[in-house]
Write a structure and sequence with these properties.
By secondary structure, the chain is of the alpha/beta class. It has helices at 52-57, 59-62, 80-92, 105-109, 113-120, 131-141, 159-176, 193-201, 217-230, 256-266, 277-289, 312-321, 327-348, and strands at 39-40, 45-47, 50-51, 71-74, 96-100, 124-127, 147-148, 182-189, 206-212, 239-240, 299-305. A hairpin with a 2-residue loop joins β2 and β3 (50-51). α3 (80-92) runs parallel beside α5 (113-120). It starts with 38 loop residues before the first strand and ends with a helix.
Length: 349
């Protein structure tokens, strides 16, 4: 299928290809057909607290000569983009206003996780009483004075940082894997910003696969079409790879299948978050790893690990409150990723 056309969205038949993932290292796995690792982009930081995927998307703001205050954005109350924008605004000494839908009562009185960190960085939180009021405020915010950043950092300016990642991948592939003819890169996707701009800039032998983690396949395509139209209308789109049906859940909803996917990745020393990474891993497993087919010698599979580990403790606590994991499982999960969490936490201090 031709993934470089607006309407020719390719689908991957499950079991049609084999895998191998690499960037920094190869790590052994119990599956005899593959050796997984990851494109570890989460350690890439442009400012304290602005790392990984958000460092790519927000590079244009971090390097801007001037920023109109306030920075205004909107989205979920535990958003990783919210926390990154709060850190960026604090570093640039500008105000940051963030719009969100009604908070759970317990969270309003006792902020935790990304919300707590963003508030400590000086974020002005604007909580709207209804979803309708929130939508109206977001529509008005982009018309007012200041620097408006769409939900998740979905902005034309994000292309600058993502293009840098694409060029780094191209150089690495040319150096370490010059004979691989077919390279597949799975990208956990919300609005599809990273996947869209990667597809524009990666070399021809690399196919980008966006895995919908926030909404449906239709929502992801709609978001990418909209951003493409706002950023030059190149008409170059990534493929869309859906997760298995048991992992297609409302965004952020704790489920045992997602935790099982997370544990499966952790068993291969691939450290992911539960919101995006676990969903992407489930898609990777269902489409490639469980097929039993041997890996073709000229094919390579990469999983982009964007990080977001700083939210893992609050994610795991929510799983435990819902009765989906035990305290022992929570401690085990944290022990598997403590090094990554510490690295990200240290960068925010």
């Amino acid at each position: 299928a031709d993934c470089a056309k607006v309407e020719e969205w390719c689908e991957i038949p499950r079991g049609s290809r084999r895998t191998h993932s690499t960037l920094l290292s190869q790590r052994p796995c119990t599956n005899k057909h593959w050796v997984p690792s990851q494109v570890q982009d989460f350690a890439h930081c442009i400012l304290p607290g602005v790392c990984g995927n958000k460092a790519r998307k927000l590079l244009y703001l971090a390097t801007a000569t001037q920023l109109q205050s306030p920075i205004v954005s909107h989205g979920g109350h535990q958003s990783n983009a919210m926390l990154a924008l709060a850190a960026l605004a604090a570093h640039r000494n500008v105000c940051f206003q963030y719009h969100t839908k009604p908070l759970p009562q317990w969270l309003r009185h006792n902020p935790v996780g990304n919300l707590e960190r963003a508030l400590k960085l000086g974020m002005d939180l604007v909580e709207h009483p209804t979803a309708e009021a929130y939508e109206h405020a977001c529509a008005e915010a982009c018309k007012r004075k200041g620097t408006f950043v769409a939900q998740g950092g979905a902005a034309p300016g994000a292309e600058e940082g993502v293009a840098e990642l694409a060029h780094s991948l191209s150089s690495w592939l040319s150096r370490d894997y010059p004979t691989e003819k077919n390279v597949h890169l799975l990208v956990p996707s919300g609005t599809g910003t990273t996947a869209l701009f990667l597809a524009r800039h990666v070399p021809s032998q690399l196919t980008v696969h966006a895995v919908p983690c926030v909404g449906s396949e239709r929502y992801l395509r709609q978001q990418m079409r909209q951003l493409d139209a706002q950023s030059g209308a190149s008409g170059i789109f990534p493929c869309v790879l859906q997760p298995p049906s048991h992992c297609q859940v409302p965004f952020g909803a704790p489920t045992r299948p997602l935790f099982s996917a997370w544990l499966d990745a952790a068993s291969t020393k691939v450290q992911l978050d539960l919101l995006y990474g676990a969903v992407a891993w489930s898609a990777l497993s269902a489409s490639w790893l469980e097929s039993g087919y041997p890996q073709p010698r000229d094919e390579l599979l990469l999983l982009l690990n964007c990080g977001e580990h700083q939210g893992l403790p609050s994610q795991l606590a929510r799983y435990r409150r819902k009765g989906l994991i035990t305290e022992d499982e929570e401690r085990f999960a944290l022990s598997k990723t403590c090094s990554s969490i510490d690295e990200v936490a240290d960068s925010t201090r």
